[in-house]
Amino acid sequence: MVLGVIEDYPFVEGSETVPPDAILVGYSDGLVEPENVYGEEFGIQRLRDSALRLNAGSPSAIAQGMMQAADEWAGTAEQADDMTVIVARLR
After folding, report:
1. What is the pLDDT of residue 80?
2. Stated pTM of the model
3. How many independent structural domains does the chain possess?
């Protein structure tokens, strides 16, 4: 759901406790939907694995690495959808 589009949209508020230096990743569907030659999507698990593998890097390096991993999975220079990712290191 796009935030702010529908007035009075019901939502559940919550909170999470995270360890120091945890990363927060926000992404668009274009980052998890690239398909390889067999029609398999990159998917959330591969995106998560990429973020964990790149965790020691800067937020910028993590974001770039995740987009590169999705591109390599697809194996084509042509991008079917936009790829948006925001990475923040929590302090």
Report:
1. 66
2. 0.79
3. 1
